[in-house]
Amino acid sequence: MKQVIIIHGGDTFETYDEYLSFLKNFEVDISYFKKKGWKNSFQEKVGNDFEVIAPKMPNKENAKYLEWKIWFEKILPQLNNELILIGHSLGGIFLAKYLSENKLSKKVVATLLVAAPFDSSDAEYTLADFVLPDDLTLFEEQGGSIILYHSKDDPVVPFVDLNKYIAKLKAARAVVFEDRGHFNQENFPEIVLDIKNISG
Known about the structure:
By secondary structure, this protein is α/β, with parallel strands linked by helices. The chain has a single domain, classed as 3-Layer(aba) Sandwich (Rossmann fold), CATH 3.40.50.1820. It is about 30% helix and about 20% strand. It has seven helices and six strands; from the N terminus they run βααβαβαβαβαβα. It has helices spanning about 15-25, 40-45, 65-75, 90-100, 135-140, 160-170, 190-200, and strands at about 1-5, 50-55, 85-90, 110-115, 145-150, 175. It has a six-stranded parallel β-sheet with strand order 2-1-3-4-5-6, with helices on both faces. The longest helix has 12 residues, at about 90-100. The radius of gyration is 16 Å and the shape is globular.
């Protein structure tokens, strides 16, 4: 059985003081804690031919790449040898960075990056230590089929970041949307269909 590993997004800060300032100034709405999105119902959507694993990465509100790397490497030995990796937002750049810097012992069938930041040069946020290396060749070699999803109206990750990935990942396929924002919707039928087609 193929396994689908979904790495969620998160926030990063250059300093702890910036993180504390974020916490103090964040406007809390109770609906924030009731968010439901496509990742929550993914197992149901892809069906019993896949096992969906969505690990909770450490401290997503103030994510540190080294902490996520350590946690990811605790999960890897327990996985099968036919992996489909999905990274949403910060989870996308995490996978791109990890697969560019580390040789996997598992076979990756496909890597799907959803609204993944490439760098912070065109954004109002920092990526702290989630910084891609200049060379993404290893990612291309071991990432399987690479598909990039981005929406032109994404209010979080600038659309230009998609073009930066395309320039580096020559074999990647880009899927462009007009109105999906940062892909926080409840359903994402296109990614479900792509996974079934990849594995079909």
